[in-house]
Design goal:
The protein is 24% helix and 21% strand. By secondary structure, the protein is an alpha+beta fold. It is globular and about 40 Å long. It binds 2'-deoxyguanosine-5'-monophosphate.
């Protein structure tokens, strides 16, 4: 069994977060350390540690994460200008919290996808 993270406590509302959306499959809340004017995390309610751990059973949840992202982008007023959806996996991906999450970033031009190497 994977270890719970702080995100499980946010889902259960045991610790505060600015929750923007919640249903039986997913929860969305504002990132505590925003990297853009809009920075929202969309997560499965079920603990899936990383993108490596998704299974066919999770496909409806993963699809819901995307439809909720589109809905929230519209709600935030960033849909037309555009935004970025991002999932970090493990060490090289820069994952810090081991509960799968999709970042929704927007509200300014976000620049190239990866920092350029020197
Ligand atoms: P990642 O590097 O992809 O694992 O991103 C983890 C994100 O989670 C990071 O942008 C900060 C955010 N985060 C970490 N702890 C908390 C928390 O307690 N509350 C909220 N709202 N966000 C958190």
């Amino acid at each position: 069994m994977a270890e719970e993270t702080i995100f499980s406590k946010i889902i259960r509302k045991e610790i505060p977060a600015q929750i923007l959306y919640q249903d039986e499959l997913v929860t969305a809340f504002r990132d505590i350390n925003p990297q853009a004017p809009t920075h929202i995390l969309i997560i499965p309610n079920k603990l899936i540690p990383t993108a490596n751990d998704v299974t066919a059973e999770d496909e409806s949840t993963l699809g819901r994460m995307l439809t909720v992202a589109a809905k929230l982008a519209a709600q935030e007023g960033i849909a037309a200008d555009g935004y970025r959806l991002m999932i970090n996996c493990n060490r090289h991906g820069g994952q810090e919290v081991y509960h799968l999450h999709m970042h929704l970033l927007g509200g300014r031009p976000l620049g190239p996808m990866l920092a350029r190497r020197e």
